[in-house]
TrEMBL record:
<keyword id="KW-0663">Pyridoxal phosphate</keyword>
<dbReference type="InterPro" id="IPR015421">
    <property type="entry name" value="PyrdxlP-dep_Trfase_major"/>
</dbReference>
<dbReference type="InterPro" id="IPR015424">
    <property type="entry name" value="PyrdxlP-dep_Trfase"/>
</dbReference>
<dbReference type="GO" id="GO:0031071">
    <property type="term" value="F:cysteine desulfurase activity"/>
</dbReference>
<dbReference type="Pfam" id="PF00266">
    <property type="entry name" value="Aminotran_5"/>
</dbReference>
<feature type="domain" description="Aminotransferase class V">
    <location>
        <begin position="23"/>
        <end position="398"/>
    </location>
</feature>
<dbReference type="InterPro" id="IPR015422">
    <property type="entry name" value="PyrdxlP-dep_Trfase_small"/>
</dbReference>
<keyword id="KW-0808">Transferase</keyword>
<protein>
    <recommendedName>
        <fullName>cysteine desulfurase</fullName>
        <ecNumber>2.8.1.7</ecNumber>
    </recommendedName>
</protein>
<comment type="similarity">
    <text>Belongs to the class-V pyridoxal-phosphate-dependent aminotransferase family. Csd subfamily.</text>
</comment>
<dbReference type="GO" id="GO:0006534">
    <property type="term" value="P:cysteine metabolic process"/>
</dbReference>
<dbReference type="InterPro" id="IPR000192">
    <property type="entry name" value="Aminotrans_V_dom"/>
</dbReference>
<dbReference type="GO" id="GO:0030170">
    <property type="term" value="F:pyridoxal phosphate binding"/>
</dbReference>
<dbReference type="InterPro" id="IPR010970">
    <property type="entry name" value="Cys_dSase_SufS"/>
</dbReference>
Amino acid sequence: AGAAGLAGCRADFPVFRHHPGLVFLDSAASTQKPQQIIDAIAEFYAGGYANIHRGAYRLSAQATDQFEAVRERAAQFFKAPAAESIIFTRNATEAVNLVAYSWGLRNLNAGDVVLVSEMEHHANLVPWHLVTGLRGARVEAVRMTPEGRLDLEDYAQKLQLPNLKLVALQHISNALGTIHPAKQLVDMAHRHGKPILLDGAQAAPHMPLNLSELGADFYVLSAHKMLGPSGVGLLIAQPQHLRDMPPFLGGGDMIREVYTDRSTYADLPNRFEAGTPAIAEVVGFGAALAYLEALGMENIHAHESELFQYAQGQLNLIEGVDLYGPESSSEHSERAGVLSFNVRGAHAHDVAGFLDEANICVRAGHHCAQPLMRALDVVSTARASFYVYNTREDVDALARELRDIATFFGENL
Ligand code: PMP
């Protein structure tokens, strides 16, 4: 039902004209771009480009206004606690690193614990390994249940760990599509007086967010997974945390006064935005947010849920195909538009290779989630993921090819 408003949007994506018959099922890695975003970037370069925050001439002031307007738009789009606590980074990964190095180096001490989960993307693991390593602290992980959910009993127990300083969990799993109960995760952490970072790289593109209501201390995401250009991410934080945090990267734009031997730093948000940012890409991200707003995040979520249900039903019918992640029904949707699977007897890379020959793009591998793969006891999976431009015909094409692939490998088992 929610798909009605999205029905025409596929025509906005030129990639499908350049590659007729393309079945693009890898939006969890990065999404395709509509013409409106491509145009916004081209128009900015052609019609009003200059460096920002330099203010000496009108062209720069206009570029600054356009750049800062995206911060305001993002604050409204995500219902952020404050526009000044939205920091532009390169991507979600850099946003986690910002928190790890700035907050972590200041607040973690020998013996302290950062609590992650077995399901995390490496982007929400490795920065914590690096920084706890520097501080003599350590990382503990909440377990995954056999169905692919966070084990909330284990979470409740680990929240009681002495010396726990920070919780860092994903909102939606990129490998399995599990939608975690974010509000509950935040409230549980706060009941124990612990700050929590949520990795929203897979949630922000796919559902309406109200970050003021959610109350996470830190929330990170990437523009390229939500129709925007590569090279832009966001850290959205509670302002009081950022006010207490030292800068992460140093350089131009983030200072108040600089001497040869010391410097003082600008207020929010500039303190965390050293150097010339991805100006045109941020402007492009603004156009992506406008585009998503026009489609409606509720409609997008409904469209993906519907496609997911349909795909799960189709793939469940194929002998020799195993699906991973919690079963989802329409009454109880705890899955985003991500479907992880294997064909019995085949390596996921071979499955992806066969699908590619049929013009179907899926990802194969460990999905930057090696601990999760270990917990599932598989080396890799193939993953189909959906976005606004996907249709039931895309799912039908996937199911048709998988039937052939499963038959082929079934006969050769
Ligand atoms: N977290 C999750 C859950 C992701 O899916 C991804 C992207 N695969 C990231 C973090 C990192 O995003 P980026 O590579 O854009 O920094």
